[in-house]
Amino acid sequence: MENTTRMWVFPKLDTRQFVVLALLMALHMVLSRLTVGTNVLQVSFAFVTMSLIAKWYGPLWAMLIAAVLDIVGVTIINPGAFFIGFTLTAVVSALIYSVAYFKHDFNSWVRVMVAVGLVSLVTNIGLNSIWLVLMYHTAHDWSSFLMFITPRVIKNVIMFPIQVGISYFLLNSPIVKHTTKQIFS
After folding, report:
1. What residues form the membrane-spanning segments (predicted)?
2. Helix/strand/coil (H/E/C) assignment for every residue in 107-149
3. Domain count of the fold of the chain
4. Which CATH number does the domain housing residue 164 bear?
5. What is the pTM assigned to this prediction?
């Protein structure tokens, strides 16, 4: 019970932890801009930094940082039409990653597959498709939703094994374990 309760508080950060968080945020902004695709369908590797933030800082920090990064990204880094739905998507993704990875020294294949699968299904396919229909289509009907969801399903099916593999090896790498011991213990 104590471990679950500690998950839902903002842990105080020392200087090293704060600097690492700032570096991860900067790296996230860079990786989220290095995308392939269109405005409607993009492939990015920003999940790597959000996975590390979720593993090291927990759900509250990860959700706060996801919201801040989304808002900064859409208003300052890449000015465009701000839509709160995409911020909600980023927050939900951070929550899923945090619940799966926070306070776990070893992340099994199953844990990583469930986390990546939930993020893919709930946020990337589900929520983002809903937001795109609301933003770009005047007729909010089933055929409009299918038009947006079909390419997203294909993209996420292709990206699923790639994201699982990268996440598994990153989260269980000796460098991440060493960093966890040095900075977060």
Report:
1. 20-48, 83-102, 109-133, 153-171
2. CCHHHHHHHHHHHHHHHHHHHHHHHHHHHHCCCCCHHHHHHHH
3. 1
4. 1.10.1760.20
5. 0.90
